[in-house]
Design brief:
Elements: H1 2-14, E1 29-38, E2 56-65, E3 69-77, E4 91-102, E5 107-119, E6 128-137, E7 140-147, E8 159-168, E9 174-183, E10 201-213, E11 219-228, E12 240-248
Antiparallel strand pairs: 1-2, 1-12, 2-3, 3-4, 4-5, 5-6, 6-7, 7-8, 8-9, 9-10, 10-11, 11-12
């Protein structure tokens, strides 16, 4: 259909016809995807217990509607040798759905939920739902992600706060920064078994990085420096550099 309309338009111009052609209606649906490789996967700045401290493959698909509704799936390889020694191909799968709204041309909000599903890790204890609330102003955003059930990695009510800001630099570089804080609940099914909570609130990480698209390949290179904070049991997190390559389509 697109080829036919283009051919007709060219013919009309060539013959100096007075006919005009309306633009094709824009679809309210859009789908995008991404795939990437990182030098390590440190969930929410956790450098003490990385989800994968080796080369990590990640990717996802996203659907959005002009109304603001969105849905998607994201996945990552995990470290089967150390964290899950008896499992062959452990994977994290995140399924999410929500709504992006606008308050004005600069200010917007997000309301959504994510279901974390861990494949081939030997237990279903890590699976669970999380609530997402967020505000964004131009290139800055603030989100709060609250766990809605007890899991092997957190208690109901645990909330991760993330403030992010991206700034465009010359030569197509971008400066990306994020500050993560954590509120911890000290009551849950796995408290005292998988973890011990001694802190109510902690600085989790400060991440500063640079990213740059590589020519017109669709590939973006990134380098992030994680300044570690503390875990729920007051364990100190180390600083770490993470390198990455990602491709969007």
């Amino acid at each position: 259909m697109k080829f036919t309309l283009k051919a007709l338009a060219v013919a009309a111009v060539a013959s100096a016809s007075s006919f005009t052609f309306a633009d094709e209606p824009t679809s309210p649906h859009s789908v995008s995807g991404n795939i990437g490789v990182l030098s390590s996967y440190n969930l929410r700045g956790n450098t003490a217990l990385p989800e994968n401290d080796k080369v990590t493959l990640q990717g996802g698909l996203d659907y959005s509607h002009a109304s603001g509704l969105y849905a998607g799936w994201w996945t990552s390889t995990l470290d089967g040798d150390d964290a899950y020694p008896d499992q062959a191909n452990p994977m994290e799968h995140d399924f999410y759905v929500g709504y992006n709204g606008s308050i004005n041309e600069d200010l917007g909000f997000t309301l959504g939920t994510t279901y974390y599903y861990y494949y081939d890790v030997g237990t279903s204890d890590f699976n669970g739902f999380e609530l997402l609330l967020g505000l964004n102003y131009k290139d800055a955003s603030l989100t709060a992600q609250t766990l809605l059930e007890d899991t092997g990695w957190g208690n109901t009510g645990d909330t991760y706060f993330l403030a992010s800001y991206s700034y465009a630099l010359p030569k197509d570089f971008s400066l990306n920064s994020s500050l993560g804080l954590y509120y911890y609940s000290d009551s849950g099914d796995f408290e005292g078994e998988n973890y011990i909570t001694t802190e109510d609130f902690n600085f989790r990480h400060l991440t500063v990085g640079l990213s740059k698209p590589i020519a017109d390949t669709g590939v973006t290179a990134s380098m992030d420096y994680i300044i570690g904070g503390k875990l729920r049991d007051d364990t100190d997190l180390k600083n770490k550099v993470v390198l990455g390559l990602s491709y969007s389509f």
